[in-house]
UniProtKB/TrEMBL annotation:
<feature type="transmembrane region" description="Helical">
    <location>
        <begin position="256"/>
        <end position="277"/>
    </location>
</feature>
<feature type="transmembrane region" description="Helical">
    <location>
        <begin position="214"/>
        <end position="236"/>
    </location>
</feature>
<feature type="transmembrane region" description="Helical">
    <location>
        <begin position="106"/>
        <end position="126"/>
    </location>
</feature>
<feature type="region of interest" description="Disordered">
    <location>
        <begin position="495"/>
        <end position="519"/>
    </location>
</feature>
<feature type="transmembrane region" description="Helical">
    <location>
        <begin position="369"/>
        <end position="389"/>
    </location>
</feature>
<protein>
    <submittedName>
        <fullName>Uncharacterized protein</fullName>
    </submittedName>
</protein>
<feature type="transmembrane region" description="Helical">
    <location>
        <begin position="138"/>
        <end position="160"/>
    </location>
</feature>
<feature type="compositionally biased region" description="Pro residues">
    <location>
        <begin position="1"/>
        <end position="18"/>
    </location>
</feature>
<feature type="region of interest" description="Disordered">
    <location>
        <begin position="1"/>
        <end position="21"/>
    </location>
</feature>
<keyword id="KW-1133">Transmembrane helix</keyword>
<feature type="transmembrane region" description="Helical">
    <location>
        <begin position="74"/>
        <end position="99"/>
    </location>
</feature>
<feature type="compositionally biased region" description="Pro residues">
    <location>
        <begin position="499"/>
        <end position="511"/>
    </location>
</feature>
<feature type="transmembrane region" description="Helical">
    <location>
        <begin position="401"/>
        <end position="419"/>
    </location>
</feature>
<feature type="transmembrane region" description="Helical">
    <location>
        <begin position="302"/>
        <end position="322"/>
    </location>
</feature>
<feature type="transmembrane region" description="Helical">
    <location>
        <begin position="27"/>
        <end position="45"/>
    </location>
</feature>
<feature type="transmembrane region" description="Helical">
    <location>
        <begin position="331"/>
        <end position="349"/>
    </location>
</feature>
<feature type="transmembrane region" description="Helical">
    <location>
        <begin position="172"/>
        <end position="194"/>
    </location>
</feature>
Amino acid sequence: MQPHPQPHAQSPPYPPPSRPRRGGSPWGLLLAVPAVVLLVTQQVLPAIRTLLLGVETGEGPITRSVRPEFVTGMLATFGLGAAFATLGLCLGLVVGAALRRGSALLAQLGLGLLGLTLLAFAPLLHGIGVLDRFGIGALWPHLAVLVLPTLVIGGVLGAISRSARVTTGISVAVVLAGAAWSAQTDMGYVMGAVSPGHDIYRLGFAMMDLQGAAVLSVLLAVPVSILGIVAMLVLLASRARLRLADGQRAGSPAGVIGVVLSVVAVVAAVVVAWPWLGQTLSLGGPGVESAAIMARTLSLDLGNAAVLTVICGAAAIGIGYLRPIGAASPWLLLIFSPWFFTGLFPTVVARFEVARESGGLGVEPYAGLTPPFVVVPLLVLLTFIADGARRAREEGGRIPWGRSLAIGLLGVGFTLWVQRQTALHTFVFSYDTDVPSAQYVVLTSFTRMEDPAVGLLVPLPMLMIAAFVFALGVAAFGRMSLAVAGTVPARSVTGVPPGGAPPGHVPPLPDPTSREDRP
Protein backbone atom coordinates (compact mmCIF):
# COMPACT_ATOMS: atom_id res chain seq x y z
CA MET A 1 0.00 0.00 0.00
CA GLN A 2 1.36 3.38 -0.98
CA PRO A 3 1.74 6.02 1.74
CA HIS A 4 -0.83 8.78 1.91
CA PRO A 5 0.57 11.87 0.15
CA GLN A 6 1.30 14.95 2.22
CA PRO A 7 -1.10 17.84 1.56
CA HIS A 8 1.80 20.08 0.65
CA ALA A 9 3.43 17.70 -1.82
CA GLN A 10 2.11 19.56 -4.88
CA SER A 11 2.74 23.03 -3.46
CA PRO A 12 5.27 25.19 -5.27
CA PRO A 13 8.47 25.78 -3.34
CA TYR A 14 8.42 28.97 -1.29
CA PRO A 15 11.48 29.87 0.77
CA PRO A 16 10.93 30.52 4.46
CA PRO A 17 12.08 33.84 5.88
CA SER A 18 15.75 34.05 6.73
CA ARG A 19 16.70 33.77 10.35
CA PRO A 20 17.73 37.12 11.88
CA ARG A 21 21.43 37.55 12.42
CA ARG A 22 22.38 38.50 15.94
CA GLY A 23 25.67 40.06 14.99
CA GLY A 24 26.13 43.45 13.39
CA SER A 25 28.48 45.29 11.10
CA PRO A 26 31.15 47.53 12.62
CA TRP A 27 30.72 49.80 9.61
CA GLY A 28 27.60 51.09 11.31
CA LEU A 29 29.68 52.89 13.92
CA LEU A 30 31.73 54.51 11.18
CA LEU A 31 28.60 55.90 9.53
CA ALA A 32 27.52 57.43 12.85
CA VAL A 33 30.85 59.20 13.44
CA PRO A 34 30.02 62.40 11.44
CA ALA A 35 26.83 62.87 13.47
CA VAL A 36 28.73 62.45 16.74
CA VAL A 37 31.43 64.89 15.63
CA LEU A 38 28.86 67.52 14.65
CA LEU A 39 27.00 66.94 17.89
CA VAL A 40 30.17 67.65 19.86
CA THR A 41 31.12 70.75 17.87
CA GLN A 42 27.63 72.26 17.60
CA GLN A 43 26.06 71.29 20.91
CA VAL A 44 28.51 69.96 23.48
CA LEU A 45 31.23 72.60 23.10
CA PRO A 46 28.78 75.56 22.98
CA ALA A 47 27.06 74.16 26.08
CA ILE A 48 30.41 73.98 27.93
CA ARG A 49 31.26 77.51 26.84
CA THR A 50 27.86 78.74 28.04
CA LEU A 51 28.50 77.18 31.44
CA LEU A 52 31.98 78.73 31.68
CA LEU A 53 30.62 82.11 30.60
CA GLY A 54 27.98 81.96 33.30
CA VAL A 55 30.42 81.22 36.14
CA GLU A 56 33.12 83.56 34.86
CA THR A 57 32.28 86.29 37.35
CA GLY A 58 31.54 84.08 40.33
CA GLU A 59 28.17 84.45 42.01
CA GLY A 60 27.49 87.91 40.64
CA PRO A 61 25.39 86.97 37.63
CA ILE A 62 23.42 84.39 39.59
CA THR A 63 22.25 86.74 42.33
CA ARG A 64 21.74 89.60 39.87
CA SER A 65 20.01 87.82 36.99
CA VAL A 66 17.93 84.93 38.26
CA ARG A 67 14.62 86.39 39.26
CA PRO A 68 11.64 84.44 40.55
CA GLU A 69 9.75 85.49 37.43
CA PHE A 70 12.20 83.52 35.30
CA VAL A 71 11.63 80.32 37.28
CA THR A 72 7.86 80.72 37.31
CA GLY A 73 7.82 81.59 33.60
CA MET A 74 9.91 78.52 32.80
CA LEU A 75 7.66 76.25 34.85
CA ALA A 76 4.58 77.79 33.24
CA THR A 77 5.86 77.18 29.71
CA PHE A 78 6.81 73.61 30.60
CA GLY A 79 3.33 73.01 31.99
CA LEU A 80 1.47 74.68 29.11
CA GLY A 81 3.52 72.78 26.55
CA ALA A 82 2.83 69.45 28.24
CA ALA A 83 -0.89 70.29 28.51
CA PHE A 84 -1.27 71.26 24.83
CA ALA A 85 0.76 68.23 23.72
CA THR A 86 -1.45 65.97 25.82
CA LEU A 87 -4.59 67.53 24.35
CA GLY A 88 -3.41 67.09 20.77
CA LEU A 89 -2.20 63.57 21.43
CA CYS A 90 -5.50 62.47 22.98
CA LEU A 91 -7.51 63.93 20.11
CA GLY A 92 -5.23 62.22 17.64
CA LEU A 93 -5.54 58.87 19.39
CA VAL A 94 -9.32 59.10 19.07
CA VAL A 95 -9.05 59.77 15.34
CA GLY A 96 -6.45 57.04 14.92
CA ALA A 97 -8.54 54.49 16.81
CA ALA A 98 -11.39 55.07 14.37
CA LEU A 99 -9.09 54.81 11.36
CA ARG A 100 -7.61 51.56 12.67
CA ARG A 101 -11.03 49.89 12.38
CA GLY A 102 -11.30 50.78 8.70
CA SER A 103 -9.59 49.48 5.62
CA ALA A 104 -6.01 50.32 4.73
CA LEU A 105 -7.30 52.74 2.08
CA LEU A 106 -9.42 54.63 4.62
CA ALA A 107 -6.52 54.70 7.07
CA GLN A 108 -4.25 56.22 4.43
CA LEU A 109 -6.90 58.75 3.43
CA GLY A 110 -7.55 59.84 7.01
CA LEU A 111 -3.85 60.04 7.90
CA GLY A 112 -3.12 61.94 4.70
CA LEU A 113 -5.72 64.53 5.66
CA LEU A 114 -4.18 64.81 9.11
CA GLY A 115 -0.82 65.38 7.46
CA LEU A 116 -2.18 68.54 5.84
CA THR A 117 -2.66 70.09 9.29
CA LEU A 118 1.13 70.20 9.71
CA LEU A 119 1.10 73.24 7.41
CA ALA A 120 -0.54 75.23 10.20
CA PHE A 121 2.40 74.56 12.54
CA ALA A 122 4.15 77.82 11.67
CA PRO A 123 5.34 79.28 15.01
CA LEU A 124 6.74 82.53 13.58
CA LEU A 125 3.75 83.43 11.43
CA HIS A 126 1.30 82.11 14.01
CA GLY A 127 2.96 84.25 16.68
CA ILE A 128 2.52 87.36 14.52
CA GLY A 129 -1.15 86.48 14.12
CA VAL A 130 -1.49 85.99 17.88
CA LEU A 131 -0.06 89.47 18.46
CA ASP A 132 -2.64 90.97 16.10
CA ARG A 133 -5.47 89.18 17.91
CA PHE A 134 -4.45 89.15 21.57
CA GLY A 135 -1.79 91.85 21.89
CA ILE A 136 1.53 91.91 23.73
CA GLY A 137 2.16 89.36 26.45
CA ALA A 138 -0.27 86.62 25.38
CA LEU A 139 1.94 83.53 25.14
CA TRP A 140 -0.55 80.72 25.61
CA PRO A 141 -2.33 81.21 22.25
CA HIS A 142 1.08 80.93 20.59
CA LEU A 143 1.89 77.70 22.44
CA ALA A 144 -1.53 76.28 21.52
CA VAL A 145 -0.25 75.70 17.97
CA LEU A 146 1.55 72.69 19.47
CA VAL A 147 -1.78 70.83 19.35
CA LEU A 148 -1.41 70.38 15.57
CA PRO A 149 1.76 68.23 15.29
CA THR A 150 0.83 66.21 18.37
CA LEU A 151 -2.60 65.60 16.82
CA VAL A 152 -0.88 64.08 13.79
CA ILE A 153 1.43 61.94 15.93
CA GLY A 154 -1.52 60.76 18.00
CA GLY A 155 -3.47 59.90 14.86
CA VAL A 156 -0.60 57.83 13.47
CA LEU A 157 -0.04 56.16 16.82
CA GLY A 158 -3.71 55.29 17.28
CA ALA A 159 -3.96 53.91 13.75
CA ILE A 160 -0.88 51.68 13.59
CA SER A 161 0.17 50.82 17.16
CA ARG A 162 -0.40 47.19 18.09
CA SER A 163 0.84 47.43 21.67
CA ALA A 164 -0.24 49.44 24.72
CA ARG A 165 3.40 49.46 25.81
CA VAL A 166 4.49 51.12 22.57
CA THR A 167 1.62 53.61 22.66
CA THR A 168 2.45 54.61 26.22
CA GLY A 169 6.18 54.97 25.55
CA ILE A 170 5.78 57.16 22.48
CA SER A 171 3.03 59.22 24.14
CA VAL A 172 5.27 60.02 27.11
CA ALA A 173 8.07 61.08 24.75
CA VAL A 174 5.69 63.35 22.79
CA VAL A 175 4.36 65.08 25.92
CA LEU A 176 7.90 65.71 27.17
CA ALA A 177 8.83 67.05 23.73
CA GLY A 178 5.92 69.49 23.88
CA ALA A 179 7.05 70.76 27.28
CA ALA A 180 10.64 71.22 26.07
CA TRP A 181 9.65 72.99 22.85
CA SER A 182 7.37 75.44 24.66
CA ALA A 183 10.09 76.42 27.14
CA GLN A 184 12.47 77.18 24.25
CA THR A 185 10.11 79.06 21.94
CA ASP A 186 11.94 81.95 20.32
CA MET A 187 8.81 84.08 19.93
CA GLY A 188 8.67 85.09 23.59
CA TYR A 189 10.94 88.10 23.13
CA VAL A 190 9.06 89.23 20.00
CA MET A 191 5.71 88.93 21.74
CA GLY A 192 6.87 90.53 25.00
CA ALA A 193 5.63 87.51 26.96
CA VAL A 194 7.11 86.17 30.18
CA SER A 195 9.12 83.15 29.07
CA PRO A 196 12.70 81.86 29.27
CA GLY A 197 13.35 83.06 25.72
CA HIS A 198 12.17 86.58 26.54
CA ASP A 199 14.46 86.87 29.57
CA ILE A 200 17.52 85.37 27.84
CA TYR A 201 17.16 87.62 24.80
CA ARG A 202 16.49 90.72 26.93
CA LEU A 203 19.57 90.17 29.08
CA GLY A 204 21.93 88.98 26.38
CA PHE A 205 21.06 91.11 23.38
CA ALA A 206 19.10 94.10 24.68
CA MET A 207 21.13 94.77 27.86
CA MET A 208 24.31 93.00 26.59
CA ASP A 209 24.64 91.14 29.88
CA LEU A 210 26.02 87.96 28.35
CA GLN A 211 27.05 86.48 31.70
CA GLY A 212 23.59 86.85 33.13
CA ALA A 213 22.01 85.46 29.97
CA ALA A 214 24.42 82.51 30.10
CA VAL A 215 23.28 81.67 33.63
CA LEU A 216 19.65 81.63 32.52
CA SER A 217 20.62 79.53 29.50
CA VAL A 218 22.20 76.91 31.77
CA LEU A 219 19.13 76.88 33.99
CA LEU A 220 17.01 76.27 30.89
CA ALA A 221 19.34 73.69 29.32
CA VAL A 222 19.51 71.40 32.36
CA PRO A 223 15.78 70.49 32.58
CA VAL A 224 15.50 70.32 28.78
CA SER A 225 18.40 67.85 28.66
CA ILE A 226 16.89 65.80 31.48
CA LEU A 227 13.58 65.65 29.61
CA GLY A 228 15.45 64.44 26.52
CA ILE A 229 17.23 61.68 28.41
CA VAL A 230 14.03 60.53 30.10
CA ALA A 231 12.10 60.56 26.81
CA MET A 232 14.77 58.54 25.01
CA LEU A 233 14.94 56.00 27.84
CA VAL A 234 11.16 55.58 27.82
CA LEU A 235 11.09 55.31 24.03
CA LEU A 236 13.83 52.68 23.90
CA ALA A 237 12.41 50.78 26.89
CA SER A 238 9.11 50.43 25.04
CA ARG A 239 11.02 48.38 22.43
CA ALA A 240 8.90 49.95 19.71
CA ARG A 241 9.68 48.77 16.21
CA LEU A 242 8.21 49.99 12.95
CA ARG A 243 6.96 47.25 10.61
CA LEU A 244 6.99 48.69 7.11
CA ALA A 245 4.49 46.22 5.62
CA ASP A 246 1.27 45.47 7.46
CA GLY A 247 -1.93 44.94 5.52
CA GLN A 248 -4.04 43.47 8.31
CA ARG A 249 -7.10 45.69 8.54
CA ALA A 250 -10.57 44.90 9.79
CA GLY A 251 -12.26 46.84 7.02
CA SER A 252 -15.07 48.07 9.27
CA PRO A 253 -17.23 51.01 8.12
CA ALA A 254 -16.22 52.69 11.38
CA GLY A 255 -13.13 53.90 9.52
CA VAL A 256 -15.34 56.46 7.77
CA ILE A 257 -15.79 58.17 11.14
CA GLY A 258 -12.02 58.58 11.36
CA VAL A 259 -11.93 60.19 7.92
CA VAL A 260 -14.71 62.60 8.91
CA LEU A 261 -12.81 63.55 12.07
CA SER A 262 -9.71 64.12 9.94
CA VAL A 263 -11.67 66.51 7.73
CA VAL A 264 -12.80 68.40 10.84
CA ALA A 265 -9.14 68.66 11.93
CA VAL A 266 -8.16 70.10 8.54
CA VAL A 267 -10.90 72.73 8.75
CA ALA A 268 -9.79 73.67 12.27
CA ALA A 269 -6.17 73.98 11.10
CA VAL A 270 -7.22 76.30 8.26
CA VAL A 271 -9.07 78.50 10.75
CA VAL A 272 -5.99 78.63 13.00
CA ALA A 273 -3.65 79.46 10.12
CA TRP A 274 -5.93 81.86 8.25
CA PRO A 275 -4.39 85.08 9.69
CA TRP A 276 -1.22 84.32 7.71
CA LEU A 277 -2.52 81.78 5.18
CA GLY A 278 -4.54 84.49 3.46
CA GLN A 279 -1.39 86.60 2.97
CA THR A 280 0.75 84.08 1.08
CA LEU A 281 0.56 86.29 -2.05
CA SER A 282 2.02 89.27 -0.17
CA LEU A 283 5.63 89.83 -1.26
CA GLY A 284 6.38 93.11 0.50
CA GLY A 285 6.66 96.68 -0.71
CA PRO A 286 8.11 97.96 -4.00
CA GLY A 287 11.65 98.18 -2.57
CA VAL A 288 11.82 94.50 -1.65
CA GLU A 289 13.83 92.27 -3.97
CA SER A 290 11.38 89.43 -3.66
CA ALA A 291 12.86 87.18 -6.36
CA ALA A 292 16.39 87.36 -4.92
CA ILE A 293 15.16 86.84 -1.35
CA MET A 294 13.09 83.78 -2.25
CA ALA A 295 15.93 82.34 -4.33
CA ARG A 296 18.39 82.73 -1.48
CA THR A 297 15.96 81.25 1.05
CA LEU A 298 15.34 78.29 -1.26
CA SER A 299 19.07 77.73 -1.70
CA LEU A 300 19.49 77.68 2.08
CA ASP A 301 16.64 75.15 2.34
CA LEU A 302 18.34 72.90 -0.20
CA GLY A 303 21.63 73.19 1.67
CA ASN A 304 19.98 72.35 4.98
CA ALA A 305 18.18 69.41 3.37
CA ALA A 306 21.41 68.02 1.93
CA VAL A 307 23.27 68.26 5.24
CA LEU A 308 20.40 66.78 7.27
CA THR A 309 19.90 63.90 4.83
CA VAL A 310 23.57 62.98 4.64
CA ILE A 311 24.42 63.32 8.34
CA CYS A 312 21.25 61.99 9.96
CA GLY A 313 20.59 59.47 7.19
CA ALA A 314 24.07 57.96 7.43
CA ALA A 315 23.85 57.65 11.22
CA ALA A 316 20.36 56.11 10.96
CA ILE A 317 21.53 53.49 8.44
CA GLY A 318 24.54 52.73 10.59
CA ILE A 319 22.52 52.27 13.78
CA GLY A 320 19.20 50.91 12.47
CA TYR A 321 20.19 48.84 9.44
CA LEU A 322 23.79 47.74 9.98
CA ARG A 323 23.28 47.29 13.75
CA PRO A 324 26.90 47.51 14.93
CA ILE A 325 26.12 45.96 18.32
CA GLY A 326 23.32 43.66 17.22
CA ALA A 327 19.79 43.87 18.54
CA ALA A 328 20.85 46.41 21.18
CA SER A 329 21.96 48.92 18.52
CA PRO A 330 18.98 51.30 19.01
CA TRP A 331 20.34 51.99 22.49
CA LEU A 332 23.20 53.85 20.80
CA LEU A 333 20.69 56.68 20.40
CA LEU A 334 21.24 57.39 24.11
CA ILE A 335 24.41 59.19 23.06
CA PHE A 336 22.21 61.85 21.47
CA SER A 337 19.52 61.88 24.17
CA PRO A 338 20.62 65.02 26.12
CA TRP A 339 20.05 66.97 22.90
CA PHE A 340 16.82 65.18 21.94
CA PHE A 341 14.83 68.39 22.51
CA THR A 342 17.60 71.01 22.79
CA GLY A 343 17.23 73.91 20.39
CA LEU A 344 19.31 77.04 19.85
CA PHE A 345 18.26 79.13 22.83
CA PRO A 346 20.36 77.35 25.50
CA THR A 347 23.58 77.99 23.50
CA VAL A 348 22.87 81.14 21.46
CA VAL A 349 24.75 83.37 23.94
CA ALA A 350 27.92 81.30 23.62
CA ARG A 351 27.61 81.28 19.83
CA PHE A 352 27.25 85.05 19.82
CA GLU A 353 30.27 85.44 22.14
CA VAL A 354 32.42 83.28 19.85
CA ALA A 355 31.38 85.32 16.81
CA ARG A 356 32.15 88.57 18.64
CA GLU A 357 35.59 87.43 19.79
CA SER A 358 36.52 86.12 16.36
CA GLY A 359 35.34 89.26 14.57
CA GLY A 360 32.59 87.35 12.82
CA LEU A 361 29.67 89.55 13.84
CA GLY A 362 27.71 90.56 10.79
CA VAL A 363 28.78 87.39 8.97
CA GLU A 364 26.30 84.55 8.90
CA PRO A 365 27.80 81.39 10.42
CA TYR A 366 27.70 78.15 8.42
CA ALA A 367 27.17 80.15 5.21
CA GLY A 368 23.64 80.96 6.36
CA LEU A 369 22.58 77.37 7.09
CA THR A 370 20.57 76.79 10.25
CA PRO A 371 22.22 74.74 13.01
CA PRO A 372 22.14 72.26 14.59
CA PHE A 373 22.76 69.86 11.72
CA VAL A 374 22.10 66.82 13.90
CA VAL A 375 18.34 67.05 14.55
CA VAL A 376 17.84 64.18 16.98
CA PRO A 377 14.07 63.66 16.43
CA LEU A 378 14.78 63.30 12.69
CA LEU A 379 17.61 60.89 13.48
CA VAL A 380 15.28 58.77 15.63
CA LEU A 381 12.61 58.63 12.90
CA LEU A 382 15.13 57.65 10.22
CA THR A 383 16.60 55.02 12.53
CA PHE A 384 13.15 53.47 12.98
CA ILE A 385 12.76 53.34 9.19
CA ALA A 386 16.20 51.74 8.73
CA ASP A 387 15.44 49.20 11.44
CA GLY A 388 12.11 48.39 9.78
CA ALA A 389 13.85 47.87 6.44
CA ARG A 390 16.31 45.47 8.06
CA ARG A 391 13.49 43.50 9.67
CA ALA A 392 11.56 43.33 6.40
CA ARG A 393 14.61 41.79 4.73
CA GLU A 394 15.17 39.33 7.57
CA GLU A 395 11.55 38.17 7.42
CA GLY A 396 11.92 37.28 3.78
CA GLY A 397 9.74 40.06 2.43
CA ARG A 398 10.57 42.99 0.18
CA ILE A 399 11.51 46.38 1.55
CA PRO A 400 8.72 48.84 0.64
CA TRP A 401 11.01 51.53 -0.67
CA GLY A 402 8.18 53.86 -1.66
CA ARG A 403 6.73 54.09 1.84
CA SER A 404 10.17 54.32 3.41
CA LEU A 405 11.19 57.20 1.17
CA ALA A 406 7.86 58.96 1.72
CA ILE A 407 8.32 58.93 5.51
CA GLY A 408 11.97 59.94 5.23
CA LEU A 409 10.96 62.84 3.00
CA LEU A 410 8.28 63.77 5.53
CA GLY A 411 10.88 63.93 8.31
CA VAL A 412 13.32 66.07 6.33
CA GLY A 413 10.56 68.27 4.90
CA PHE A 414 8.96 68.98 8.26
CA THR A 415 12.37 69.79 9.76
CA LEU A 416 12.97 72.33 6.98
CA TRP A 417 9.47 73.73 7.50
CA VAL A 418 10.19 74.31 11.19
CA GLN A 419 13.60 75.81 10.40
CA ARG A 420 11.90 78.35 8.15
CA GLN A 421 9.93 79.42 11.20
CA THR A 422 13.05 79.88 13.35
CA ALA A 423 13.36 83.53 14.35
CA LEU A 424 16.22 83.59 16.87
CA HIS A 425 19.17 82.49 14.74
CA THR A 426 18.05 84.75 11.90
CA PHE A 427 17.57 87.77 14.14
CA VAL A 428 20.93 87.41 15.91
CA PHE A 429 23.21 86.44 13.03
CA SER A 430 21.60 87.41 9.72
CA TYR A 431 22.16 91.15 9.54
CA ASP A 432 24.50 92.98 7.14
CA THR A 433 23.97 90.57 4.24
CA ASP A 434 23.58 91.66 0.64
CA VAL A 435 20.46 89.57 0.18
CA PRO A 436 18.69 88.82 3.47
CA SER A 437 16.73 85.67 4.15
CA ALA A 438 12.94 85.68 4.10
CA GLN A 439 12.83 85.19 7.88
CA TYR A 440 14.84 88.36 8.42
CA VAL A 441 12.64 90.41 6.09
CA VAL A 442 9.46 89.18 7.80
CA LEU A 443 10.81 89.95 11.28
CA THR A 444 12.15 93.40 10.47
CA SER A 445 9.04 94.42 8.55
CA PHE A 446 6.90 93.27 11.45
CA THR A 447 8.89 95.28 14.00
CA ARG A 448 8.54 98.34 11.75
CA MET A 449 4.76 97.86 11.62
CA GLU A 450 4.96 97.15 7.88
CA ASP A 451 3.49 94.42 5.68
CA PRO A 452 5.10 91.19 6.99
CA ALA A 453 5.50 89.84 3.43
CA VAL A 454 4.33 86.33 4.31
CA GLY A 455 4.67 85.27 0.68
CA LEU A 456 8.44 85.55 0.91
CA LEU A 457 8.58 83.00 3.72
CA VAL A 458 5.88 80.61 2.50
CA PRO A 459 5.20 81.32 -1.19
CA LEU A 460 2.19 79.56 -2.66
CA PRO A 461 4.21 77.01 -4.73
CA MET A 462 6.19 75.97 -1.66
CA LEU A 463 2.96 75.73 0.33
CA MET A 464 1.57 73.30 -2.24
CA ILE A 465 4.73 71.20 -2.31
CA ALA A 466 4.79 71.04 1.50
CA ALA A 467 1.13 69.99 1.54
CA PHE A 468 1.89 67.15 -0.88
CA VAL A 469 4.94 65.97 1.08
CA PHE A 470 3.15 66.07 4.44
CA ALA A 471 0.01 64.31 3.19
CA LEU A 472 1.97 61.63 1.30
CA GLY A 473 4.37 60.98 4.18
CA VAL A 474 1.75 60.69 6.91
CA ALA A 475 -0.52 58.59 4.66
CA ALA A 476 2.34 56.11 4.16
CA PHE A 477 1.97 55.08 7.80
CA GLY A 478 -1.47 53.66 6.96
CA ARG A 479 0.05 50.41 5.68
CA MET A 480 2.53 50.03 8.52
CA SER A 481 2.35 48.98 12.15
CA LEU A 482 4.15 49.64 15.42
CA ALA A 483 4.78 46.68 17.67
CA VAL A 484 7.11 45.49 20.42
CA ALA A 485 10.44 44.16 19.15
CA GLY A 486 10.37 40.38 18.81
CA THR A 487 6.65 40.21 17.97
CA VAL A 488 6.12 37.77 15.11
CA PRO A 489 3.75 39.06 12.41
CA ALA A 490 0.67 36.92 12.09
CA ARG A 491 1.37 35.89 8.51
CA SER A 492 4.98 34.88 9.22
CA VAL A 493 4.08 32.34 11.91
CA THR A 494 3.60 29.69 9.21
CA GLY A 495 6.78 30.61 7.41
CA VAL A 496 5.16 32.87 4.85
CA PRO A 497 6.69 36.36 4.56
CA PRO A 498 4.58 39.42 5.38
CA GLY A 499 4.26 40.13 1.67
CA GLY A 500 1.97 37.13 1.27
CA ALA A 501 2.22 33.82 -0.59
CA PRO A 502 1.10 32.69 -4.04
CA PRO A 503 -2.58 31.71 -4.36
CA GLY A 504 -3.26 28.16 -3.28
CA HIS A 505 0.06 27.83 -1.51
CA VAL A 506 0.07 25.54 1.52
CA PRO A 507 3.01 26.09 3.89
CA PRO A 508 5.26 23.03 4.31
CA LEU A 509 5.10 21.03 7.52
CA PRO A 510 8.16 21.32 9.77
CA ASP A 511 10.78 18.57 9.47
CA PRO A 512 10.87 16.70 12.80
CA THR A 513 14.48 15.66 12.16
CA SER A 514 15.75 19.22 11.69
CA ARG A 515 17.76 20.70 14.53
CA GLU A 516 17.80 24.24 13.16
CA ASP A 517 15.16 25.60 15.52
CA ARG A 518 16.19 23.63 18.58
CA PRO A 519 17.84 25.51 21.44
